[in-house]
Amino acid sequence: MGIRSLTRIEAERRSALVTVERYDIAIDLTALPDGPEIRCVSTVAFGCSEPGAETFVDCAAEVRSATLNGTPLTPGDDGRIPLPALAAHNVLRVESVQADTTTSPGAHRAVDPADGEVYLWTSFEPDEARYVWACFDQPDLKAPHAFTVTAPAAWTVLSNSGDPRVEEQGTARRWTFPDTPPLSVYNTVVNAGPFHEIRHEADGHDLGVFARRSLAEVLERDADEIFTLTRQGLAFYAEAFAMPFPQRKYDQVFVPEFGGAMENYGCVTWSDMFLRRATPTHAEREVLAVVLLHEMAHMWFGNIVTMRWWDDLWLNEAFAEFACHWAAEGATRYTDVWAGHLAGGKLRAYLSDQGPVSHPIHQPIHDVAQAASIFDNITYPKGASVLQQLKTYVGEDRFRTGMAAYFARHAWGTTTLQDLIDALAEAGDRSLGTWRKSWLETAGTDRFTLEHDGDTVTLVADGTPRPQVLAIGAYDRAGDALERTALVRVEVAEPRTPVTGLPATSDLLLINDDDLTFATTRPDAATRDTLFAAAARLPTAISRGVAAATVWDMLTAGEATAAEAGHCLTAVLAAETSDAVIEPLLTLVTTIAELWAPDADRPALTVAVAAACLRLADDPGRRQVALRGLARTATAEGLARLREQAGDDVDLRWRALVREAELGGDVTAESAALLARDPDPDAWVRALTVRAALPDPAAKAEVWQQLAVDRTVPVQSVGAVAAAFWRPAQDALLAPYAEHYLAEMPQLGQGGMIPAMVYTSQLFPLYGIDSAFVEKAQQAGQETVPVVRKTLLERADTVLRMLRARTANA
User: Fold this and answer.
1) What would the mean pLDDT of 457-483 be, rounded to a whole number?
2) What are residue 526's phi and psi, to 5 degrees?
């Protein structure tokens, strides 16, 4: 029998039966420098409301021994240990070993290629702690955790609670951490290794940042920025939620071979790819700020107050994604962060919400395996946008009041959706029942257009719209630009809403101006061409972004060609002034040229993007971003210009080599020389990325083996290598890898949630395929685990839209 996934019914039964009093977890890491094993002893004290009843504890690691109240237990073969004949008060003790710290979920042993040093990190969402030690692995069974960790003497050990007692034990040291507050199992953490550490005192908090020693110089470069953002975020949330972060110590640990970031209470774990090896661009610094504030928001949404079951995942993720933008705009220098959201995550959410995997933000979740499939664009960027609309709908003051009441009422407990709705409804003068049902329990995206009848303007919804407040801006030409002459807020409750207060004549009316709601829009037939021509002349990053979102949505729906959309958005790029938008918009237009344009249109569109990059490079503040874009679009002739501009910039030289390799250049010697002088400990991945782009069968076979079969590429770098692998004009070379992808499908779910999503999406073929293959892959995906099946369906839908765009007007 395989490892079983906890069902909601099982979780509810166990929660009604069991009250966890505390966990004492002893962890031995002394074998890790030379081997893979983590040895654990988990001691769980818990009460039972029905003495004599039975239940089970989760443990998917190898169980060496287990006793309940001193009586030996027999583990099952399904990742569970049966617990028979429970007493009113119980003590469970389980000795376990996790010997697969390379591919198993929960814990990972990483070796730094720069110096051979070993680092250990754990990450447990949604239910991966059970792969390391025995626990009741469900979110509503919260309890204090006490960790005692024995590790090599040269290592630093980090966990949720600060100020451990450290005792020397010869070649090892024992770290005894104070009890945590009541936490869900998935919010706990142990990170260990010979870290470089920097500490800073701010507003009564003891802040720490850590990274592997080979990245010490990069961490030193970024530490002040990280500490500033951390201080700003803690102060903003303390005021917004009327509850300061209750622990003095707040650590952030950057580790190798980790995907994304994880909000462990008081000790956030990050992929150290966020420590950019080249000087970060504005957009990269903004991403760092947003992720930092997202994970920090989880200290309240997820840790202090936790969802009762995974159907309320959005209480964690959507709120954290909304709150990080709210905090960034209100407390940091990244005041255009919502414009960046619109140019990035929100566009992805619009596409996902109109495809086969669309789902309500709040939906029934049968088991944890299904829960792993909803860490997606609906839960994150759509959820954030919906909450931005909710703040607009009820008003920010009432929104803050409701949040404060929610945390005061439920701190250190668990909640459901209704608890939050009740708190917000009590704080305001609106009933939120209809809002809840239409926004949180109904899938899909509203679409609006305007209908003109003389001087009368009517906002028309495609179907019955959700209750919402949005704005319509009126714009008139002022020389070569457009200026806004009126802005009217409209409260929508019916399919047709008369709009008053707009000028009788305007050159352009922009629906959802200020981007207050989550809805797509369409120009009517008479103004379609006006929108495409005028988008670049709009006066603000948000207004341009709203127009760009409409153009992108029309492309993905087959209502605009790649050439139309690409040239429109390239013009917007040339006019853009917000650094929060330039980089994501450049990525978008380059992606349109590479993946959406027909073969006949791609060269001209690529040249147009390259020309925009060259113009942008004349601005010293945007030169780096522009040259990165040029590295994706330069022709063979343009590469010489790029090399001249790049100079000794190692990052730009790598990017230029990828493009030169794609165009068939002989890059072997230069790649080897650059690898020899690049100080980045992961520079070998850059060299592999160059090789991936080569139009050479042997190179493709070698890269596929490392990327997809052996999985030697760190998970956070899979996307970059895969993007270089799937290149335009290499269809014949890439065609065999469609079947190779299908062959790998049974293994795509290995390693936990994040690797499953990354490998399923990034390895999906983009060239050398047709719609018949996509349909075949969709069918094959029906036999996989939910997170793979869902990710595959979403990626397949996007690729089908790309294929249709490539054949449009062909």
Assistant:
1) 95
2) -75, -25
CB distance 86 to 52 below 8 Å: yes
Q: What pLDDT is attached to residue 455?
A: 83
pLDDT tens string 641-679: 898 888 899 999 999 999 999 999 999 999 999 999 999
Contact 482, 473 (CB under 8 A): no
The H or E element containing residue 511 is: strand 508-511
The answer to whether residue 559 is catalytic is no
Do 90 and 46 meet the contact criterion of CB atoms below 8 Å apart? yes
DSSP 187: G
Q: Which of 95, 128, 263, 295 is catalytic?
A: 295
Tens of pLDDT, residues 616-643: 999 999 999 999 999 999 998 889 889 8
**Tens of pLDDT along 197-219?**
999 999 999 999 999 999 999 99
| Cβ proximity of 365 and 309 under 8 Å | yes
DSSP 355-399: STT---SS----BHHHHGGGSSTIIIIIHHHHHHHHHHHH-HHHH
Query: Under the phi-then-psi rule, with left for phi > 0, alpha for psi from -120 to 50, and beta for the rest, what region is 561?
Result: beta
- Report the SS3 class of residue 800: helix
| Size of the chain, expressed as the number of residues it contains | 810
Sheet with 145-152, strands from edge to edge, namely: 71-72, 62-68, 89-98, 38-48, 18-28, 145-152, 172-176, 165-169
pLDDT attached to residue 429: 75
SS3 track for 687-736: HHHHHHHCCCHHHHHHHHHHHHHCCCCCHHHHHHHHHHHCCCCCHHHHCC
C-alpha dihedral (769, 770, 775, 781), degrees to nearest 10: 10
**First vs last Cα of the chain: how many Å apart?**
52
Pair of tokens at residue 160? 């949720």
Q: Is 238 within 8 Å of 205 (Cβ atoms)?
A: no
Model confidence at 1, pLDDT cuts 50, 70, 90, reads low
Local structure of residue 466 (DSSP, 8 states): P
Burial letters for 684-693: b for 16+ Cβ neighbours within 10 Å, e otherwise? ebbbbbbbbb
> Which tokens go with 475?
């714009």
Q: Please compute the mean of the pLDDT values over residues 166-188 and round it to a whole number.
A: 97
Residue 395: other Cβ atoms inside 10 A: 15
Which band of pLDDT confidence, cut at 50, 70 and 90, is reported for residue 293?
very high
The one-letter code for the residue type at 784 is T
Residue pointed to by tokens 């319509």: 472
Listed in sequence order, the residues at least 6 apart from 58 whose beta carbon sits closer than 8 Å to its beta carbon are 6, 79, 80, 81, 127, 129, 130, 134, 135, 136, 137
Instruction: Report whether 638 contacts 610 (CB < 8 A).
Output: yes
Over residues 757-766, the mean pLDDT reads 97
Task: Give the model confidence (pLDDT) of 309-359 as tens digits.
Answer: 999 998 899 999 999 999 999 999 999 999 999 999 999 999 999 999 999
CB atoms near residue 210 (< 10 Å): 25
Alpha helix positions (H), 241-312: 282-297
* Domains within the chain, CATH numbers bracketed: 1-185 (2.60.40.1730), 306-440 (1.10.390.10)
Beta strands 62-68; 172-176: pairing state: unpaired
- CA 188 – CA 130 distance, rounded (Å): 12
